[in-house]
Amino acid sequence: MILIELFVPPGVFDPVQRRRLGERLIDALMGTEDAHAQPVMDSARALTQVLVQEPAAWIAGDRHPVDPADPPRYLIRVSAPAAWRKEMSAHAIDRLTQALAETEVEAGRDPDRLRAEPHALVHVVGIPEGSLGMCGRPMGSLDLIQRMTAPHRADIAHLPTDDLAPGTVIDPVCGMTVDLNATDLTLEYEDTVYGFCNGQCRRIFADDHGVPLTA
After folding, report:
1. How many other C-beta atoms can be found within 10 angstroms of the C-beta atom of residue 150?
2. Each residue of 120-134: pLDDT tens digit?
3. Domain residue ranges of the chain, discontinuous segments joined by +
4. Of 10, 26, 89, 211, which cross-links 206 as Cys (Cβ 3.0–4.6 Å)?
5. Of residues 67 and 157, which shows the higher confidence score?
């Protein structure tokens, strides 16, 4: 599960605008270029939640309250399994800032200030393994990937491969395209070499097919 908390000054956005901004943040974080199978991305979206909050008091570092008449400040906190934090940070900070910039354009404000001034802070927080709970039990990062991909793995195994570039394969767990020449995350099963986008997808495939992992 991924939780996005967006803090905005009181009174800047009406309910419709808050909802649209929350949807925009989910779209930005999920992205499209990673090319995971669409059903897997839909499952990931279903496990992503956004809370838009308006603090009763917002004090800037210079000890002055943020003036509602000024262009709004933003604070985004993304909470996700710790195993995903580093990889997620590499794209989430830019994408989420861009989503805020698009909102600024719609409001007729200068979007460039979000990259020139510290007016949009993004914190990506890693939740330690075993500390995230769902369905009444602790859920680790591996559990979450299993849950997101389990209903779709059979279909992913039959995705067409005719248009793949030479040396690339489809990750049989999440459906992402993998360059075999750029990764050592592979497994051989029944005379076929499979590639994986990360070690957790590799682990899930190995567990499902009884393939021992030596590294």
Report:
1. 14
2. 999 999 999 989 999
3. 2-134, 159-215
4. 211
5. 157
As a whole number of angstroms, the distance between CA 131 and CA 112 comes to 37
- Shortest CA distance to 101 belongs to which of 88, 85, 116, 89? 116
Residue 200's identity, in one-letter code, is Q
pLDDT for the residue numbered 128: 95
Across residues 20-37, what is the average pLDDT? 82
Tell me the per-residue pLDDT of 163-208, one tens digit each, with 9 for 90 and over.
889 999 999 999 999 999 999 999 999 999 999 999 999 999 999 9
Bridge partners, residue 80, by sequence: 126
In which region does residue 186 sit, left (phi positive, over 0), alpha (psi from -120 to 50) or beta (all else)?
beta
Which tokens go with 44? 């990931």
Q: How far apart are CA 131 and CA 83, in angstroms?
A: 12
H helices of the chain, in order, are: 15-30, 38-46, 82-106, 113-116, 141-149, 153-156, 199-209
Name the pairing type of β-strands 137-138 and 133-134.
antiparallel
Q: What is the pLDDT of residue 95?
A: 95
The residue with tokens 């990506």 is: 124
Determine how β-strand 120-127 pairs with β-strand 74-81: parallel
Strand partners, 189: 192
Mention the CATH class of domain 2-134.
Answer: alpha beta
